[in-house]
Design goal:
By secondary structure, the protein is an alpha+beta fold. The chain is 28% helix and 19% strand. Strand 6 and strand 7 form a beta hairpin. Helix 2 runs antiparallel to helix 3 and helix 2 runs parallel beside helix 7.
Amino acid sequence: MSKSFFIDTTRCTACRGCQLACKEWFELPANKTKQLGTHQNPPDLNANNYKLVRFSEHMIGDRVEWYFFPDQCRHCVYPPCQGAADTVLEGVVIQDEATGAVIFTEKSTQISKDDFEYIRESCPYDIPRRDEKTGRMAKCVMCIDRVQAGMLPACVKVCPTGTMNFGDREDMLALAQKCLEKVQKTHPNAMLANPDDVNVIYLLADAPERYHTHSVAQASPRSRKQLFASVRNRLATAGDGVERS
C-alpha cells in the first residue's frame, strides 16, 4: 500500500524543525543567504534544501495574520515530472511502487539544463531543483531509506505539534478528512489541497493563495500524465510515419 503525508498547516508554528531535520538527515550543505525582510530562510527551495517552511503575512481586517506552509515535493500519484523526463531520457525520474515515492536518479546528471527546465515546468508545484555543480536534480525523496527500514520520515519524526503525519495512504486520507471537518467549523473556507492527485496532502484553513503561489495545482497531474504519454507515443512512432492515438 502506498504511503502519504498529511500536513495540517493549522498546527504549524513555523519552528522549522522539519526543515532542519531533512537537511541534517541528508547531510546537505549550508546555503549562503541574505536577510530579505522575512523570517523565511532560505528564500526558496534549492538543491541543498528539499523542504522549506514558507512564511506569508496578510492584513485581515485590522490585524496581521501569519500563514505557514511546509513546502516539499507532493509525490504525485501520477508524476508529471516522470512523464516529461521520460520524453528526454527514461530512468531520470522513477516512482517506487511500494511507497509511491517519486525519486530523481543519478541519470539526471546526463541531461542538459534546458531539458531540466522542461521537466521543472511540467511540475504544477514548482518543486524540481538542480545542483549547478553536479547537474543532479534534487528534491524530497520521502526519506525512502528510512521508510524502507520501518522508520518515519525525518520531518515527521521531529515535528512537535502534529503538523506532519505519515502512514498508509488510506489512513492519511481518513485523518485529513476528519481534521478538515473539525477545522471547517471555525474556518468555512478550509480545504484539502489536491488530495486525489498527491501523496502529500495539505489541510489549508484559508484561500490557497494566502499560503503560497503553488500550494495547489493549476492543472491535474493525471491530465499531465496523459499529455506526456501522448508525447512519448508520437516520438516513438515518428520514425514509421504512423501516428497512433
